[in-house]
Specification:
389 residues, TIM Barrel, Arc Repressor Mutant, subunit A, 2 domains, 40% helix
C-alpha cells in the first residue's frame, strides 16, 4: 500500500477568474465582468463551507495559492471574507500563502492589506519591461507600472515574491531579453518564473498564427534565450530548480513544488483542479470553468467523481517521472518502487544508458536527473522515456 496519503499536509488552490482584459497568449479561464465579483465571493465562501467536516478538511493545510485570472482584481475586503471562511473550515498552518497580482493593481495600501491577511508571497506578473512586447502580449500594465509595483513590494516588506518573465517572443532579440533581465535584477528578486512563449489554440495569439500574421520563433531562437536567461540569473545567484523556475537558495516555491511531488491539494473556484490520494491511487477533478454555473448551482464541493478521473499507481508513477525530471531534484528509483510500485523495464534502462552517454541524464546515488543540456529538451526526453514503458 502506498505510504503517502495518511496524515500528510496538503495545499489549497483558489482560482479567481477576473481579469481586466485578455492577454494574447493566455488560455486560462477568466471573465472581465467586475460586477460579478460580489456574487462570486459569496459562491466561493459557500464552496469553502461545503468542505467543513469532510476528509479534505482533516489534513493540515501548509500552503495556499491564490491564482487566476487576476486575483488582485478583488478588493481586500472580499479577500478577508474568503480567508475567514478558510479559517473556519480547514486546519490552516500555512508556511506559504501566495497571491498572483498584476502591476497595475498594486498600491502600497493594497499590499499592506494583503500582508495583514497573512499573504506572505507575491507573484507579480511582469512578463516584460519592453513597451512593444507588453502591447504585443496585450498586457494591461506599462513598463513604469511594473517598476513601481516592484518598488512597492520592497517598501511593503513582503517576505518573498516571484516575478514572471516571458521569453521567445516573435521579434524579441537577445538584447531585448537581456534588458528585461537586467531591469528585473535591479530589484534582487528572490525568485523568478520564466516561460517560453507558448502558442495556445483559441487564444488571440493562436488565431494570429493560424491566419499567418505571426510566425512563432524557431527552436534555435528559443534555445538561445533559454541559455541567456539561465546564465545571467546564475551569475546573479539565482539558480534554476525547475525548467521554468529560478530562485535564490531557500526561496523555492513550496506550493508548486508540492504539485510536482504529488501532495494533496484542493482546488476552489470555477476551473480549479484538485488532486487527492486514496487507498488505491488518487483522484483528480475539475470545477466546471463556467462562472454562471458556479454562481447558479451548488459548487462541486466534495463530489469529485462527477467531473474527475481516477489515477492508478501506474498513471501516477509516469506523471511523477514527468514532473520530477523537470526539476533539479529529479526522481529516485526507490521512491518509484516504494511509492508507486514502479520499476523501469529493460528498454527504459537501455535508453537511460544511451542518454547518459549523450550527456542528457545523470544519476546521483539513487536519483535520476536531467543535466542542464537535457533540461533544454526535457519534454521530448520524458515522452521518449515513457513511450518505452
Amino acid at each position: 500500500m502506498p505510504f503517502h496519503f495518511r496524515g500528510s499536509m496538503a495545499g489549497i488552490y483558489i482560482h479567481i477568474p477576473f481579469c481586466k482584459q485578455a492577454c494574447s497568449y493566455c488560455d486560462f479561464y477568466f471573465v472581465t465582468r467586475k460586477n460579478l465579483i460580489e456574487p462570486f465571493t459569496e459562491a466561493l465562501v459557500r464552496e469553502i463551507e461545503l468542505f467543513s467536516g469532510t476528509r479534505y478538511a482533516s489534513e493540515q493545510i501548509d500552503t495556499i495559492y491564490i491564482g487566476g485570472g487576476t486575483p488582485s482584481r478583488l478588493p481586500a475586503t472580499n479577500l478577508k471574507r474568503i480567508f475567514d471562511a478558510l479559517e473556519k473550515s480547514f486546519q490552516l498552518r500555512p508556511v506559504e500563502v501566495t497571491m498572483e497580482m498584476n502591476p497595475d493593481d498594486v498600491t502600497p495600501d493594497y499590499l499592506a492589506s494583503l500582508l495583514d491577511l497573512g499573504i506572505n508571497r507575491a507573484s507579480m506578473g511582469v512578463q516584460s519591461f519592453d513597451e512593444d512586447l507588453l502591447r504585443f502580449m496585450h498586457r494591461a500594465h506599462t513598463r513604469d507600472e511594473a517598476i513601481r509595483a516592484l518598488e512597492h513590494l520592497h517598501t511593503a516588506g513582503f517576505p518573498t515574491y516571484t516575478a514572471d518573465l516571458i521569453y521567445g517572443n516573435p521579434g524579441q532579440t537577445p538584447e531585448m531579453l537581456e534588458a528585461d533581465i537586467d531591469q528585473l535584477l535591479q530589484f534582487a528578486p528572490p525568485h523568478i518564473s520564466a516561460y517560453s512563449l507558448t502558442i495556445e489554440p483559441k487564444t488571440r495569439l493562436g488565431k494570429q498564427v493560424d491566419l499567418g500574421r505571426i510566425s512563432p520563433p524557431d527552436d534555435e531562437h528559443v534555445s538561445l534565450h533559454f541559455d541567456l536567461l539561465t546564465e545571467k540569473l546564475r551569475a546573479a545567484g539565482i539558480e534554476r530548480y525547475e525548467v521554468s523556475n529560478y530562485s535564490r537558495p531557500g526561496k523555492e516555491a513550496v506550493h508548486n513544488s508540492n504539485y510536482w511531488s504529488h501532495k494533496n491539494y484542493l482546488g476552489l473556484g470555477p476551473g480549479a483542479h484538485s488532486f487527492w490520494w486514496d487507498e488505491n491511487g488518487a483522484g483528480r477533478w475539475e470545477n466546471k470553468p463556467d462562472i454562471k454555473a458556479y454562481l447558479k448551482d451548488e459548487p462541486a464541493g466534495s463530489d469529485e467523481n462527477a467531473k474527475g478521473e481516477t489515477l492508478s499507481l501506474q498513471n501516477l508513477a509516469e506523471e511523477r517521472l514527468m514532473l520530477g525530471l523537470r526539476t533539479r531534484r529529479g526522481v529516485g528509483f526507490e521512491e518509484l518502487k516504494q511509492r508507486y510500485r514502479y520499476q523501469m523495464n529493460e528498454k527504459q534502462l537501455n535508453w537511460l544508458d544511451y542518454q547518459r552517454e549523450a550527456g542528457m541524464i545523470t544519476e546521483s546515488g539513487d536519483v535520476l536527473k536531467l543535466t542542464s543540456k537535457g533540461l533544454k529538451i526535457a519534454d521530448l526526453l520524458i515522452v521518449d522515456l515513457l513511450s518505452k514503458g
